[in-house]
Amino acid sequence: MKNTNILISGASIAGPALAYWLRRNGFTPTVVERAPALRPGGQAVDLRGAGRTVVERMGLMDDVRAVALDQRGLAYVDDAGHIKARLGADAFGGEGIVSEIEVLRGDLAEVLHRASLPGTEYLFDDTITGIDQDDDGVTVTFEKAAPRRFGLVIGADGLHSAVRGLAFGPESDSVRPIGCYTAWFTAPADIDLDGWYLMHNAPGGLVASARPGRLPHEIKAGLSFRSEPIAYDRRDIAQQRDIVARRLAGVGWETPRLLAAMREAPDFAFDSMGQVHLDRWSAGRVVLLGDAGYCPSPLTGLGTSLALVGAHVLAGELAAADGDHRTAFARYEQVMRPYVTEGQKLPPGGVSGYAPQGRFEIRMRTASMNWMTRWPLRPLIAAQFAKAGNIALPDYGQRVEPRVS
Questions:
Q1: Element housing 226 (H / E)
Q2: pLDDT in the model for residue 281
Q3: Nearest-angstrom CA–CA distance, 23 and 363
Q4: Max CA-CA distance within the chain?
Q5: In this structure, what DSSP letter does residue 193 have?
Q6: 3-class SS at 179?
Q7: What is the rounded average pLDDT of the residues 214-228?
């Protein structure tokens, strides 16, 4: 088999999932991750459609359900905390705005990391700084580790992918901002959620939200604001907290409490929302996976499914091609491109549906939620949700060894 020694950049969702499938198909994966360990917490991610099918093929559904969030659905609240509209998690067959199976990104990453062991090498607290390709492989330089040779390099390192920057060009060529910034963090469970993911909108495209955490003493909070691109230091957490505090100052509901909790949160994360669009996902021996190659933005709820499906397809095609990257990368894109195109479609209203600018727009968006739950065309809406999350997933099962626990 060709190119058995494969380097993956990124240890969130796509990276460990790919390592699992590569290892099962006889490859030797190495995963490099900038963080010193697996990143805990993070926002809740949806497991839906074909992504759920991939987890089932991995034999991990029980593991995922064991760490899934127990929540009733999404509800919009006013300044006083009164619910104005709600949509249960079981609506539209569990494939609606809030999926039946939602899990914290860090918890899913831990499940996938465990499944990729033994047989996967992890290099934490490091990142790729150079990629030099030739006819026989890739010489990779790291920020800390000594240079090494690999047959292939896979960028599974998110919206701000280092691999994409090295092999495909500057971020500005591929990332399309959608005009919104979001902070996610853990807060004390001193807001009565009653099992709901509560969201409050304020004029100016401001959003405050809180949802149940997996542990009884915590909730998962989100603070968002509409904005044109802003300049900030992605490693300066204090600066990012100040930005969020200034933007959300004066917002009602439980926002002051969430802003106070944000200052102390150990898992605070802040980023822009955007999509990644590229004409091709491979450059020689380098290929992109998940958000690095085709981030759909959190608004679609399909980032996790695209990552899981992409990992399954990429590993399956590499195995089918006996490690020939030219054939495998071409087939990977052929299979995935229609699914990605569908998955990158923003929901009705786009960012305006998530963070309306004015009071009238907020009222109309809230009314649309109630409309969705009562309108006779509900089955058609359900079909649209299901279509976005599904793909005729190739069966690579014959080339995958039985899972060994």
A1: strand 218-226
A2: 98
A3: 51
A4: 65
A5: -
A6: strand
A7: 93
